[in-house]
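Protein folding task:
====================
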Amino acid sequence: MEKPFGHICATFRDFLLRLFNKEFLIFLFFLLLSGAFWLIMTLNQTMERDISVPVEIVNVPEDVVVTSEIHDTIKVTLRDKGYTMSTYFYGQDILPLKVNFANYAKADGHAVVSNAELQRLIRQQLYKSTEIVALKPDKMDLYFNHGTHKKVPVVYKGKVTAAHNYHVTRIQVQPDSVTVYALNSTLMKINEVNTEYLSLSELSANTTRDLKLERITGAKIVPAHVKVDILVDILTEKTIEVPITAVNMPEGKVLRTFPSVVKVTMVAGSQLMDGIRPSDFRIEVDYKDIVNNPSERCTIHLVATPALVNRATMEIDQVDYLIEQR
């Protein structure tokens, strides 16, 4: 057993000697040397890279409401030698950019931090050799007020269609109104707030969506999101009997029709059917039409139907009649 084991050890030793021979070590040395030269040349080249700088608005008075969107980061494009740029990613941390609200606020409720001012604030953390190529956003616009606000309704903006044999019964927005903070001059122009556009089709079940509200320049909307419930119901058919009503009758005369009621067939959501009554409809015959167009039969008209009823039709549109003198 010892001889085979010794043979294996000798074979492994010979393999290592061949692997780490002089030629291989020389090759490995020059490979590492070329890699080092490549890294030095790369770091010595001028390059551009993007960094994100956090932004904080400080010293905002308690009675001030900032009504515009505050960017929490600024994307900064820098240009410098590679070895300097590497320090921004692997060494030196860029501290949050603190913007002193009091330095830029104006009496008109508008504060502007210009591109040059942003560069000045950012440059305080950079090496002198580093060049700022671009900022995004390139400036900061802040609108603010001292709590002036009003409540306005929310309007759903979009298009909704139901699948075949279904219909949309109601679109409900929750909350149905929001508070808008802005200067008085801006508030006077705002009477409602729209949701972001939403288009849905072929709905066959109730659907809920969380939607953002359309932004208004210089205004802060609270809350900034609403829930929209789209209620859908299956259509069913129903027939009811509706009495005929005579209108414009002269005093002392009575109009009697045969029949006195007419069947009306309608289509509506199944949940609404139980609540539909004959009194929700109105069928009329006009005495003036009879006088102006005398005939053995008079024409009747369906003049009123419930709002959520579709395709309401009468079984007949003419009836026999009799005018009696009281």
Q: What stands out?
A: Residues 103 and 111 are 9 Å apart (CA to CA). The radius of gyration is 40 Å.
